[in-house]
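This part of the workshop introduces the protein records we will be handling. Getting from the letters to the tokens is the skill we practise here. An example says more than a description, so a record of this kind follows:
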Amino acid sequence: MSKSVRQPTFRAARGLLAPGLLLASTLAACGGSGGASVDDWAGTVSDSAGVLVVSNPDAGLWGSTPAWTMTEEYRVGGMDASTDAQLGQVVGLDIDAQGNVYVADQQASRILVYSADGDYVHTIGNPGQGPGEIGQALAGVFVVGDQVWAADIMNQRVNQYGLDGEAMGSTPLDLTQGMPVRWDEIDGDRVIAQLRSLGAMGGGEDTDEGDPLVFFGEETSDTLAVLPKGLSFQISGGQMQFRFFEAEPVWDASADGRLTSAVNSGYRIEIRGADGTLERVVTRPFEPRPVEESDQQVMLDGIRQLMNDQGVPPEAAQMVLGQAEFADFYPAFAQVLAGPNGTLWVQRLTTPQDMADSGTFDLQDFGSDDWDVFDPEGRYLGVMTMPERFTPLRVTDDAFWGVQRDEFDVQSVVRFRLTEAPS
């Protein structure tokens, strides 16, 4: 299993690769094409110095009809939940060997634990700065062996607890080495973090080397990989600078140690083995879409309204908005996800104007419900539509776990099982 936490630009839709059984016969028989013959695939595979380059056509093997569907089978939280079991802002989840579900709630600075049957069990941590307490920037939860780890950015540490919730100390976070902008787990229960340089603000120097992926909580500080430097937010001269919709490195790690990564300025995704060797590159045609002035205005209006709702003085809000910058073009996609049975899922992007036109503008989420799906060989299958307002956070076997928000923005943790669509 692997776990992950969202990046600042888009609500992260992160998946975790686990050995799945569902669709195994389909994937084995037809290369994951969901029933379509791979002979119909119009792409090419070439070998470049031992790296397979999979060049996909625009059309997928499924045509207009997905071969799979998603069925709900687990739900906790939501409007009807008891006070103890209610969720505020979910930023991560994990599951232990007994099927108990651990949910990191950033808004409440706590971890809620539910049974495999969906019953509330207990709460881990309380808001605060003392031992075992959690600050206001909880960034994720991981079950590591017989411990529960909570990434507590505000208190600059990772808290450790027993599975029963008993506090067992913490490990410091050295933010001078970089701000953890995303967490994940790889190779079973090794926690990794993507670090973004804090520059002068953190006491270090801003560099162009990119964002290292480092192992956390181990005696060595080995670097798994160095991702190209993201451009959507940077720290310069001690101040945070944002450039909306600029390219960012996106990635996902899996339980077998594989790493899927890309810079979303183009549609080119790299897949590396457990030893870090580049094994496969997956591409698909992409026509850049410009960020129109109407999109920028919708975005700025949304930010202004959000700051007004939070009580920010108009003068201060205008100062922030006056410094806002936008990329010339939208990214090729929002996120990548390591799906069941070695499949690859790539989240499409929704623009502010698209959302405003549909009446569903949401500053928290510019990822579309539509995902491009590729088989384990990297061949493009087609588009799957996730359930409305659902953000996948991990994958176990043939199921997607994540957060679903209702019309009042109340959150639930839901599991949707991936099954073959009726013929």
User: Anything to note?
Assistant: Residues 1-33, 200-206 have pLDDT under 50 and may be disordered. The two ends are 31 Å apart (CA to CA).
